[in-house]
Structure formats: structure tokens, C-alpha cells
Amino acid sequence: MDSAVLSLLAAFLLSIIGLFAFIWSLRKGLLVENPAAASVIFARGEVGRVDDPALHAEDHRSLQRAAAGADGPVADPSDLQARVLADRSSALPVFMFVAFACFWLLLGSVAGLTSSIKLHAPDWLVEQGWLTFGRIRTVHLTAVLYGWITNAALGLILWLLPRLLRTELRGAAWTLLGGALVNTGIAAGIGAISAGWSDGMEYLEIPWQIGLFMAAGLAMIILPVLFTLVNRRAEHLYVSVWYCVAGLLWVTLLFVVAKMPGVHTGVQQATTNWWYGHNVLGLWFTPVSVGAIYYFLPKIIGRPVRSYNLSILGFWTLAFFYGQVGGHHLIGGPVPGWLVTLSIVQSLMMVIPVIAFTINMGGTLQGRMHLARWSPTLRFMMFGGLVYLASSLQGSMEALRSVNAVTHFTHYTVGHAHLGAYGFVSMVLFGAIYFMLPRVLNWEWPYPRLITLHFWLAAAGISIYFVALTVGGWLQGLAMLDPARAFIESVTVTLPYLKWRSVGGSLMVASHLVFVGHFLAMALRFGPVRTGAALFAPARDLELSYGK
Predict the structure, then answer these.
(1) pLDDT, tens digit (0-9, with 9 covering 90-100), for 327-367
(2) pLDDT value at position 38?
(3) Which pLDDT belongs to residue 22?
(4) Residue 237 DSSP label
(5) What distance in Å separates the CA atoms of residue 542 and residue 540, rounded to the nearest whole number?
(6) Residues with pLDDT less than 70, the chain
(7) In principle, which of 150, 383, 408, 480 could form an S-S bond with 490, CB 3.0–4.6 Å?
């Protein structure tokens, strides 16, 4: 029995286990509407009070008046103090992961823009091997997917869990060591890819010998997370905990199985490659980002999630249906027909968790969408949530054989991938960092207008990028399917759209320069002086105003 079939059977077994867990949760009443669980993100007496640390005090009061027309309720000081201690316990690991994420974001952005320009100017920067398209694009993928998104997601998890579990992070030193190993693996992997040493599978190019560092690092991060979970003081597990912990466990399992040396070969290697390639998005990036929206969006507007039942339903259906989705990338390939059909069915079934999430967030935001005018964090979260709906529906339709016949092997697929990884995941992570860092550093963002500039540059950039590649990719696919047209026409028809892709990419790079520059100004205490930075100042109690 080959490795691909074994992997699929293992995934099927996990789905069966998940089904029994789902049935158990029904018997225990976990899917019954639970207002107490929905309100666990708030301190006692805090419901109705808006919260966005990215705002100055006067802007925060304006947000509160726009939401409820008053100053808002007063939260229990003991609950706020417990939250301050939780933030304090994770401050150093969170700052480390965010700092690494910012570094890799800049490196990956420059590499991505370079590879984009090469598509319409192929003779540019060809003197060095590491600057050729095949290597620089792979550097971009590795730096962005593992360096930026994974580091930012790990920082988000380590910040959220102590808050939601109402306990301090246990084993923070292990998370620091794990982060060092993960980023050592990323740096060594990018160096190896630049030198021409690669495992040759998309998203899995890092050589397995270097991948050992990343697997060991993830394991060291999992242990403190689970230990903190076991020692929680919270009575209810909020849905964001489910998403974040499951995502961390899933990505570690996925990475270890996919990187096993000498196990996956030939057609089985391609099958395993896309099993991993799609699941790293659906079972790592997506759970963390959806979990973040479920926390930050209700927290900002001061209103519990509309239906806790729907949030749990979304989690379980994501776990049930996503495991086999990647096979639709192999339509037309030498793989079993049942595998491809199963993947198409699973892709269409993914509409269920997406619609559940959308209905839930729409109901939670009802009457308060206008608050995005004041809250930059809410702006990022709403944009990410909307794009999650759009990219997921597009992905389900793209899995259909009739649509895939046109879009396969075209830039259309690249546009879709960026819509999900950037328009959804990255925008949510940006918003989360804007919310977290004032609590991590006990220091306000010095130039709030830069947050607005970052948002509009990024939103405009990904919009231009996606539209250009969607239109250009569809025309490219039609040209390739037309036997009366020479193949070169399918290349030349894309050139105007590839130039627009570079325009959109340039706007995104500009937004990243603004974001990272603002982060450095905050970390190094440039700009207006407000409060001492907890991470660098002598140990002292944090102000309750930063623990809300």
C-alpha cells in the first residue's frame, strides 16, 4: 500500500474520530446556545464596552459613543488584573514572534515583487543563480508562508490563550526556544533554496534535514500551550481556543508527515504534496485567522458573538470537510478518479463552515458595522472576514471540473491563493498585531494615521493584484484550450495583467514598509512619549487601562 493511500486512510480515520467527538459534544450539550461561553472574552461587567488599543484616548471615547452613546460599563478590576498578568506572562514570546514575522514579511515581500516583475521582464536580474525566477519565487513563498504568517500566528496563539484560559502562560521559556528553532529552520531553508538545494515540492521546498529544526520547534511550542490549557482557570473554552489549539496540532502533524524522507515518491508524492499544500491553508492559516476574528471582532464592538452554537458548528465542519480538499489540484493527473471526486465533494461541502461563520459575524455586527470608521483593528477584521467568504466560495467553484479545465495551470490560481493568504489571513493578522502590541509593550502606537495608510495601501494592492490575475488567468486558460491559437498567445495575452500584478504588489510592499516602520518606532520608543514600555522598562505593575 503506497504512502498516499496510507495518508488518506489516516486522514479518514481522524475524521471518524472527529465524528465521534462531535457526537460526544452533542450528548454533553456543547452545541446548545451558551451565553456564558460566548461572553468569556469579557471581564465581568465589561459587555457593552468597546475596546481598540490602536486608538488614542479621545478616539476611543468617540468609538464608545458611536457604539452605545455613553462611556460604557465599568469592568471588574480583579478580572482586568488577571488579564494583565496573563498578557505579562506571554509578552516576551509574543514580541519575539511578531518581530520575526515583520522581518520575514519584508524579505518575502521584496522577493515576491522581484519574481512578479520577472514575469513581464524576464531578463531583469539574471546574473546570479539565486535571483532567477525559480529560486526567488520559492524564497518568497517560504518567507511569507512560514516566516511571516506562521510566526505571526504563533504569536497570536500565545497571546490569546492565556487571556481566554484566564491563566498565565506556563513554560514561556520553552516557547522562546521553540521559536528560535523554527526561525533557524526558516533562515537555513531560505539559504538552502537560494543555493539550489530543495526538496522540490511546492510549499515543502525546505530540505527535510532542515525541516527537523522546524518540527522540533513546533513541538516545543505545543507543550507549553497544552500545559497552559490543562491548568486553565476559565470555566468555558471559548471557540477561539478550539481553533488555535487544533490548528497548532494540525500543522505540526501535517509538516511531519509530508516531510518524511524517502516515503513519498512519484504520483504518491504529488498526492501528498497537495494534501499538505491545501491543508496548511485550511487547517493552519484558516483556523487561527477565524479564531482571531471570533475574539477580536466581538471584543472591539463590546458585544458577544451572536450564536455560539454556529461558531462550534463551523469548527467541526471545517475539521470534517477540509482534510481531502487538495486533490482537486490533480484533476487530469494520473491519480485515482475517486480521490479527485472526493476532493471536489469536500471542496463544495466547505461552503457550510464558511456560511456559518458569515451568518454569525453578520449577526454580531448588525447595527455596528459603522464602527469601522473609528476602529482600525475592526477595519482589518471586517475586510479579512469578507474576503474569507469570497475566497472560500471561489475555491469551491474552482474545484469543479468545468471551471478547473480553464483555470488549471494559469495565473487565475495564483490570484486565488493570494486572495486567501493575503486578503484574508494576512489582513486579519495585521489587525491582531495592532490590537496586541499596545498590551504587550504597554506603549501606544505613536502614529495612528500610519495604520490607516497601511490598511488602504494593502487593500488597494490586493484588490488590483487579484482582479488582474483573475481576468488575465481566465483569458490565459481560454487561449490554452483553443486549438486554433498558438501556445505563445496564451503567454502574450497575460502580459498587461502581469504588469498590473506588479503594480498591486508594489502597493502591498509599500504597506509593509509602513507597517514594519511603525512597529520599529513603537518598539524603540520613537514618536510621542506616553507610557513606559513594559518589555524594556524595569519590572512593575502594568496599568489596568492596558489590560482591558
Answers:
(1) 888 888 888 888 888 889 889 989 999 999 999 999 999 88
(2) 79
(3) 66
(4) -
(5) 6
(6) 1-12, 14-16, 18-19, 22-23, 25-35, 69-73, 528-548
(7) 480
129 CB burial (10 A radius; 0-12, 13-18, 19+): exposed
How far apart are the C-alpha atoms of 426 and 102, rounded to whole Å?
A: 12
Which is nearest to 274 in space by CA: 325, 237, 222?
325
pLDDT for 26 equals: 63
pLDDT for res 519: 97
Residue whose entry in the numeric block shows the C-alpha cell 505563445: 488
Per-residue CA distances from 480 to 118, 170, 187, 487, 494 (Å): 22, 56, 38, 6, 12
| Residue 311: closest CA among 358, 350, 279 | 358
Distances (CA, A) of 280 to 161, 284, 325: 21, 5, 11
Please, how many CA atoms are within 13 Å of residue 545, restricted to the half-sphere of its CB? 11
Q: Give one DSSP letter per residue of 262-313, joined into a string.
A: TT--HHHHHHHHHHHHHHHIIIIIHHHHHHHHHHHHHHHHT---S-HHHHHH
Query: What local confidence, expressed as pLDDT, does residue 532 receive?
Result: 41
Which 3 state secondary structure label does DSSP give 156? helix
Residue with cell 487561527: 288
The predicted structure's pLDDT at residue 548 = 46
DSSP 3-state of 56: coil
What is the distance between the alpha carbons of residues 450 and 518, in angstroms, rounded to a whole number? 7
Smallest Cα–Cα separation from 35: which of 235, 281, 265, 247? 235
Q: What is the largest CA-CA distance in the chain?
A: 75
* Residues 240/292, Cβ–Cβ less than 8 Å: yes
Cell triple for 308: 455560539
Name 422's Cβ contacts closer than 8 Å, sequence gap at least 6. Answer: 458, 462, 465, 508
User: CB of 137 within 8 A of CB of 172?
Assistant: no
Let me know: does 438 contact 60? Beta carbons within 8 Å: no
Task: Write out the three cell numbers for 172.
Answer: 514561556
3 state SS of 458: helix
CB burial class (10 A; 0-12, 13-18, 19+) of residue 482?
A: exposed
- State residue 126's pLDDT score: 86
Phi-psi region of 327 (alpha: psi -120 to 50; beta: other; left: phi over 0): alpha
Kindly give the residue spans of alpha helices, DSSP state H, lying in 129-238.
133-142, 151-165, 172-194, 208-230
